[in-house]
Amino acid sequence: MVTGKGAMTAGEGRGGRPTLEMVAARAGVGRGTVSRVVNGSPHVSAQARAAVEAAIAELGYVPNRAARALAADRTDAVALVIPESETRLGAEPYFLDIVRGVSTELADTDMQLLLTLIRTPRERQRLGQHLAARRVDGVLLVSVHENDPLPSLLERLRVPTVLNGRRSEREWMSYVDADNVGGARSAAEHLLGLGRRTVATITGPLDMYVARCRLDGYTQAMNSAGLGGDTSLVAHGDFTEEGGRAAMRALLERHPGLDAVFAASDVMASGALHVLRQSGRRVPEDVALIGFDDSAVARHADPPLTSVRQPTEEMGRTMARVLLEEIESRNGIRRHVVLSTDLVVRESA
Amino acid sequence: MVTGKGAMTAGEGRGGRPTLEMVAARAGVGRGTVSRVVNGSPHVSAQARAAVEAAIAELGYVPNRAARALAADRTDAVALVIPESETRLGAEPYFLDIVRGVSTELADTDMQLLLTLIRTPRERQRLGQHLAARRVDGVLLVSVHENDPLPSLLERLRVPTVLNGRRSEREWMSYVDADNVGGARSAAEHLLGLGRRTVATITGPLDMYVARCRLDGYTQAMNSAGLGGDTSLVAHGDFTEEGGRAAMRALLERHPGLDAVFAASDVMASGALHVLRQSGRRVPEDVALIGFDDSAVARHADPPLTSVRQPTEEMGRTMARVLLEEIESRNGIRRHVVLSTDLVVRESA
DNA sequence: TGCCAATCTGGGAGCGCTCCCACGGGAGCG
DNA sequence: CGCTCCCGTGGGAGCGCTCCCAGATTGGCA
Description:
homodimer
């Protein structure tokens, strides 16, 4: 016989971890009081609170998350869902920054961060199950496509959700986005301010809202300068380096004398840069070049690329904050946040 | 009155989610049987199993994780712990690849992946608490420093743990590492094979085991070629671009005629590349250059850098697999895995 | 034919917590 | 001075599951 049971009714908990009950016994109060103290309820006398806090410290008590989740029907965890396809394209730093921001914001809460990468349709389905089982209190969705079924599913399930980026002009779910239009506009304006007159642009895939926004910004700036309307200055890329190359080649063919290019991503700008070089043009002397994202690619290019920076980490923080609010106040209020971008001027323009 | 309670004793569960009990009622069996089916126990008759499976499908039953965790004293979750400092230095793709690998491996289990970024000492302490509370079944530790207290804490707590990389020669905890020595050796050998004779190296901070390994590999190759022993060919960097620049300048000063450099990271190689250029030297004609990591920086450099690739994603997968095994078989057996690297030859050497 | 073992099964007893009800006693009121 | 009212409190009930123990049923063997 190892340990009698009579004397120590509270038991020892599995793994020897202290339980609420043990804290209560030690502090000489009831379970309810300890629970109130732990959860910050104001309806506790100073005396009782002190006793409980002392007992907690002595025992090194940490609430059992599973028990709490079961009893309170919440998990104290949020999921960050990232479609695998998006983590390619040299966009890695972007995701890491988002994660960093989310993690920072969550650090003060004791919410846990669940990372879910979606690669296959099977995993996608699995995720649906998880969500249906309400294993998280809320979901952060990164780079959703227009026709992604996930947001609607989440909505139907009434799972608090915050998107990173919008799916279209009139996004109704909560989202946090960067001011892509403004960023693109300021890039084009910078080029125009340099005295360049034949300013071309390389777009992303136009079935992505973010790509359309960046094109819009460019168009706005061109129109304001009275240089709008020439669609031959617009070439379409797909956010890849090869796409940037092809677009640049097309542009040079149509406009051998162009003197500036705004690419909707650094990776595409990098592709464009190579083509420009191969064609014997100097950057920025002959052709000024601006990218978007302010990624490592921009910093390490030769010459280093001027680029539009988006406050990625802050976007992550904001997403987490908005989600937390949405979880807290159960009144499905939606929030739309657009954070401003800024131009980082380097040597390419 | 919405719904009577008498008839449907099993209730509706909160949020309308079906419970084990409801499945049991529907299938006309007991709770125990349903549990056995769900958990894949062999001690169930084919008939009962079929009935239960049908009921599960009809009801769309998904086990409640919290309840399971509470009853079985396990969480079905593992934590991936990443020290913030390490996510800088252009090493982002590395972490994303690790995450990708871990996530892939976990997708088939129904383990959840908890991401924990550690920035401040406070967060570090908090993590200790989490671990003490056994909120995860196991821990994956990325890039641990020699004097990090976390591994020992984990060991004391008897939490299954797998390290990414070793802390020293004789690491006793389970780990998955890349063959840094071999990779560095093959890089140096490649340089020598090119006919280069004055082969220098830029090291990482030598208080990191990984940096020492890469230096070792270089030294081995030099010794085998009968060119070893010249410590003036070794310059110390810190894995940053600026460090790479400084080291390169120092090397050029000592050896104006050097014809090859092996840098222990792509970022340092990139720094070295700029200095080499500024000094009027051509790469690879005058000086051949090799980096380590095969990161985006290497691919986008001009000229693209030859670099040592480590199978990062596979390392992630392996870590997860080893951890799962360790959790499964509770006999604290340690496993040490070293994955081979390979040289990706591009234009710089 | 009878008996024992092997197999399958139902359901009780918890896991550690939150929710909530009911109780006690002090303050404030008429 | 007695009556509410309310704050602080203890503890029952129950969240949905796993674990495990008996009971029921079957088959095999003497």
